[in-house]
Write the structure tokens for this entry.
Amino acid sequence: MSSSKTWLTQEAYDRLKVELAHISTKGREEIVARIAAAREEGDLKENGGYHAAREEQGKLEARIRQLTAMLENAEVGSAPAGDMEVVSLGSMVTVEMGGEKIEFLLGSREIAAENVKVFSEKSPLGGAVLGKKVGESTDYLLPNGKSNTVKILSVNPFLG
């Protein structure tokens, strides 16, 4: 598994550490108890509660692995402050694409609220705008192989 840095605010890092600690202990204990209770009901082939608990256990373990890797490879910092001219990690970027304005956070989905669009710096769009200045246009490849042009309209600090 390749390790890549994930930019996180200190607040997001702390929140994710608390989540990891909780699901690694109490979360696991709760799932194990549900599996044990469902197992006592008898025939496991037709035991919906048992299968649901096992599926939930798999999801929990995947989240534990995801958080562990993210926190081990986290680059913790503050969101950029003040007037910004250059797109950087942790900034809110407004771009124009195909006549439409789109605003998004450049960084990790883990630091944003659910109602904020997020693009990773590893995504085609995120990689294309990272380091660009307000007013610049750049091209990037879409997943279908076509080229798309994006113009940076504004860059602002992410205020959470």
About this structure: Residues 10-39 form the longest helix (30 residues). The chain has two domains: 6-76, 79-157. Residues 79-157 form a domain with the Chitinase A; domain 3 fold (CATH 3.10.50.30).
